[in-house]
Design brief:
Strand 2 and strand 3 form a beta hairpin. The chain is mostly beta strands.
């Protein structure tokens, strides 16, 4: 039997890549800015959902939750309550199931956007959340 198996064997963080079209958007996790796209960021695992938001001037912001799943390595804890508690406390009981996000940003209504080194006014298009 292994105490805190998911924490020991799979760690407490994952590296997630964010890209946008166009690039240069600011990425936020739970409201905190973490960098501009393209971005590869080490993100601590969490038992709670993590909201990502992507913002770039002239484009509609997009929000989505980082996709997660149960970390099956935790099952090795079996009846070890302390092991389960450690995996829950470190967030390792869950892991990010999607490690790459490519988001195409949509221009906001009436805003000027850059296309091929020129600025043009773009009409509003409906917002589509990533799947």
């Amino acid at each position: 039997m292994c105490s805190s198996c998911a924490t020991i064997f799979t760690g407490t963080q994952d590296t997630i890549t964010f890209e946008t079209v166009p690039s240069g958007a600011t990425v936020y996790l739970n409201g905190n800015p973490i960098g501009k796209t393209p971005l590869k960021k080490v993100v601590k695992r969490n038992i709670n959902s993590v909201e990502a938001q992507v913002k770039l001037a002239g484009y509609a912001p997009q929000s989505f939750d980082l996709e997660r799943e149960f970390n099956f390595v935790s099952i090795i804890n079996l009846g070890d309550v302390l092991g389960w508690a450690i995996d829950v406390a470190t967030g390792s009981i869950m892991k990010y199931s999607r490690l790459y996000y490519n988001i195409e940003l949509e221009p906001q209504a009436g805003d000027y956007v850059r296309r091929n080194d020129t600025f043009t006014e773009e009409p509003a298009e409906p917002f589509t959340a990533p799947e």
